[in-house]
Design goal:
The protein has 145 residues and is α+β, with helices and mostly antiparallel strands. It has helices at residues 46-58, 110-114, 120-131, and strands at 4-14, 17-23, 33-34, 37-39, 62-75, 78-89, 102-108. The chain is 21% helix and 39% strand. Strands 1, 2, 3, 4, 5, 6 and 7 form a seven-stranded mixed beta sheet that branches.
């Protein structure tokens, strides 16, 4: 029986744009555009884990919104379950920054993001956002954890 790793992913939204960066880990996903995220450590809550990952990977402190979806995918030879949440920057003027894990982080419209080279799970999230407009509601300013 294989181990399943639970991860957390943040779709950081600013207005009608979402944040993506290029994966720097030297694996099959290297260079692909991804949302920030990672594993849950110790006794962290889901919100604590996502807040930490967003700050570590793109340098933004975020407010966590509602869950968008959960996905399962084989990644780096592991079985992963990822919980995907909306997030917004606490400081609306803060800019993301490059880190060892994520390069060139920037905000894209969904149409711009769909033209990027992304990992399959990222494309699944795009497909969901494109087909279910209700996921974009409520407005960012009213997101609640």
């Amino acid at each position: 029986m294989s181990n399943i790793r639970v991860g957390i992913v943040g779709v950081i939204r600013r207005g009608e744009k979402i944040l993506l960066g290029q994966r720097r880990k030297l694996d099959a996903g290297f260079g692909k555009w991804v949302f920030p995220g990672g594993g849950i450590e110790g006794e962290e809550s889901l919100q604590e884990a996502l807040s930490r990952e967003c700050e570590e990977e793109v340098g933004l402190q975020v407010e966590i919104g509602r869950i968008i979806t959960a996905t399962r995918s084989a990644h780096s030879g592991k079985n992963n379950v990822a919980l995907i949440y909306w997030a917004i920057p606490r400081d609306p003027l803060a800019e993301p920054r490059e880190t060892e894990e994520i390069g060139s982080p920037q905000f894209f419209t969904l149409a711009e993001a769909e033209a990027l080279d992304v990992m399959p799970v990222t494309q699944q999230i795009f497909d969901l956002l494109r087909t279910d407009i209700s996921l974009w509601v409520p407005a960012v300013s009213t997101l609640q954890p």
